[in-house]
Fold each of these.
Amino acid sequence: MKSFSKMVYPYVIWAMAMIVAPMLMLVLYAFTVKGNSVLTFQFTIDNFIRFFSDPVFPGVLWRSLKLAVITTVICIAVGYPSAYIIAKLKPNSQALMILLITLPTWINMLVRTYAWRGILGHLSMSGELKVYIGMLYNFLPFMILQIYTALSKIDPNLIVAAHDLGANNRETFRRVILPLSLPGVVSGITLVFLPAVSSFFIPKLLGGGQYVLIGNLIEDYFISTGDWNFGSAISLIMAIIILASMYFTRKLDRKVGEQEDD
Amino acid sequence: MNYRTFKKAGIAALVSVLAACSSGGSSSGGSEVEAVDAKEAYGCNVLNVYNWGEYVGEDVIPNFEKAFNAKVNYDMFDSNENMYTRLMGGSAYDILVPSDYMIERLLKENMLQKLDKDLLTNLDALDPDVVEMQKVYDPTLEYSVPYFHGSVGLIYNTQNVDPAEIEEKGWDILLDEKYKNRVIMYDSQRDAFMIAFKALGYSMNTSDDKEIQEAYEWLRKVHETVDPAYMTDEVIDTMINPSANNPKDIAVVYSGDAAYIMSENEDMDYVEPKQGTNIWSDGMVIPANANCAPLANEFINYVLTYDASYDNSITVGYTSSNLKVTEDISTGDYEGIDAYLPRTGYEKDEVFRFNEVLVQKLSDLWNKVKIN
């Protein structure tokens, strides 16, 4: 096995060049002023002061977080029952249902969102509602698949044993199935919340440009305005929020794991 | 359904039929260009072209490749700033087609090289009015050759908007509550603030904080009164095929897009508001770090030929800088479509200048306009 460990080097090099180095440059840009030459840097925290001193920017951040949280909650509310029902079906029907759910994800997300634009464009509803529909549509499969995987892994004997010990269906669900499926929910949250909070093309395409999110802001400052320093500062704030939420989800996951051991 | 693609296919078929009919033996470049083998003449035969999306005729590139035995790599951008960002990232191109103020900026930053007038034999074909505009951003006329030009204005549905009213109000019609949810604003800070400055009677090249603040408030008022949709290229399809439940009556558009929309939907008409607007022009330039500058000059010369200019203009809908082509198209295919011929010589119209201070000041404000 030891000889195989060398195979990790290509990935380490890749990660250094493509993930770590750009992140460091992002940090450098975020803390410097515009128009630095290659050799001299003028450090500043003005970019961050600019972000937090104007209520508009934290407002956009708050809106993005709200959109991501609501999307995740709806995904759980819709995804859990769907996954539960699928897991109860005969194995063949299960495979078919999972295929049907994964099928749309074979098509690029951008293309599917354009299709939704065609559909929703003809309806008179608020841009915000359209954005929510688009978000839910794009992220729901990830949630269903995670929960379904967790549910289908549960040993049926555990449920039989619960009934045997006198638990009715509700108690069995609450005390056996739900706790055992929570890791699936947690990884579903990771897969939905993180991309949702930074998504920018769904709101851009479906919100009619009237729905600015943090991802749109970053895009705007990098591309239209050419203010890479402020764009980097916003990205860094985003990255910190994402890291923090990953930390908390991981903690939640561990807590769930401990409960299982009890 | 993309109607433009469909139309393009039709034109391509027509052009190939015409080509087949024309007298045999002449090279595909036409009589105005002397075809040479690029590799033999210049030692390089690969040309990297960076142009706007949907901005070139169907056969221009293939015909150029044939005439010069060259290979063209064609990349597209959707905003001047996007293009500039890519250049900063170190990309090397032989031909760029930026707008006036961006050419001014590239010139200022020494990123362009002088064109080779010996190779540009077709400069006489240029519309003198367009050359006059060119002097604003390229005073010595040594660094650029005009490609397309046009104006910014309002396209409106004559079934629902009274032409007399929109002529009378100009940009201020965007503040009319009657058109709530029926307006499209162009989603670019430069164009949106241009409208506000013009509506308020200021110059679009101002750096005055008080005027900028007023313009911001004007745009906020538009945002609150008519709740416009903010779009860029999607305007074209939205105006050609109005949706039954959510039709838009008025949209901010570029004149070339307006000409195209009007050729597809006869209910639409175009107006250049009386308060003045932005008259713009896009030009071909050769970056200082071009790999194959002589061939790039040949390319510019080739685009100026009647055939190539005609193909470009008829396909895309923007006004050609080749005077003969503009005359023929405005009295031919696009007859009666006034958007094809943008207004010239109106004193309230202006050309954008490169003004980095203004861009910085507007960026935060424009996001604030759109945020509810």
Amino acid sequence: MALTRINIGPVHPSTHGVLRLVVDLDGDTVVDVDTRIGFLHRGVEKLVENRKYMQCPPYMEKLDYAAPLSVDELFVATVEKALGIEVKERAQYIRVVLLELQRIASHLLWLGTTCNDLGQLTTGFMWAFMDRDLVLRLLEEATGSRMFYVNMRLGGLVRDLPAGFDEHANKLLDYLEKRLPRYERFIEKNPVFIERMKGVGILSKEDALDLGVTGQILRASGVDYDVRKDNTYYVYNKLHFSSKHAVSGDNFARYKVRMMEIGESIRLVREALRTMPEGDAVGMPVKLVMPNAKNRISIVSREVPRGEELMYLVADPQSAYRLSIRAPTFINLAALRHIARGCRIADLFAITSTLDFIMADVDR
Amino acid sequence: MNGIDYDGQEFENARKEMDKLVQDSLKGREIKPNVLFAKLSDLSKGVSGKLVNWSRVNSVWPLQFGLACCAMELMDFASSRVDAERKGFLMLRPTPRQADVMVIAGWVTKSMIPEIKRMYEQMAKPRYVIAYGECATCGGPWWESYNIIKGIDQVLPVDVFVAGCPPKPENLFGAMIKLQKKLGGDIEGR
């Protein structure tokens, strides 16, 4: 039987950036998906080599623009490991607070765009973006910027939390906690959402491990692996949270894991704010010159909102000799071909949106 | 090509026959110009120019076209906080054929230029371009990159530039209002 080959993208409302898919169809069943990437490639790993360490975070933030603070923190942590710098204890708590708030914002963004892809534009998209904006406002209060924060310094942060932050944060978290059941109610009782989510795009546990996917996609397939728990950093081992996982491995499980993670992040931020010690949180000045790098090679991995992101840094005293980034979204996007085989063409974008890739992170 | 024989002469004969039929049917009828109708049409021509322009100014539809980070703020522009629809910037259009203005939100790589050009050509005239953010304006932080075009104005005619990395959604709102003013003739443009 003759196959139909169609082209999707690189500019398509649901490709979350510029991704081109070449899809082979048998009727409306997807036989094969060929992923063409590289439309956003800008050579960030090369650019970093010509810059001093603390000139790099603005470049790093543009990797994952839905969660810039996470990648910023990852890069700074890598440099801290290379130069042998300890992070102040209060700064560790504040970093956890900011990272978890960023995770909430990122997951809300994911929820909004997924609702958009599934035709829930008016309600889901608007609600999620409304709440995301409140989180961004809180982050703006803490860091001074709305989207690209550049708030990390070696050993600490640019500034301590402002006065009254606790109160505002707790108010917002209370609000978000009330909102979550409402999201779940209108999404999980929506027949369109359920049709596209339940039992669609199944990735088994073995395949998930073979493909090397990370983050929520791995956890939705039943592997309970969270870098925050299994390779803990900062004060995550002092805080009480559980890494959420589901077993069905379909779109709905990926959705559910993310929604549960928002709840966990809310709890984490609350606890971190409550148990935060007094003290100094401001890091080293940017113009500091380090005499030499302690570790020539340093590898740091972090649980960014999209999975396990890893940076490999070969350090020179002033700047990176070589920086290599293992982007979680790149690995997760590679699983698309495997997951999408045999699904309907109408379900393809439900799968791509639950894989939740950021093309700037994929292309680098 | 598809097995259809096209006979030019036959077609010509058929057309002549049709003309003759029309002429016959009009025979004996004298068509007088309708004075009232003529005046109305003159009036409508005068009004419609302004009407078309008024409606054009008040329904600038942006294209849903996100390249990179600034697309986040473009989405925020369409969401509830900014509420762009109150000024006629309707929810982002998914196809260039329905859109009036293309917001270049993000850095433009060399491999993306043919696609952007193609989309621009698919948009119905008059069409407008807003360069949103540093990357689309001048290359921004990727100035030294080997794969980035230093500003979309090297490829497309740009109407409004918005600076910032990224600019806030309010800035895009301001840029759209500026574009409206340009359309309405308040600002001199190209």
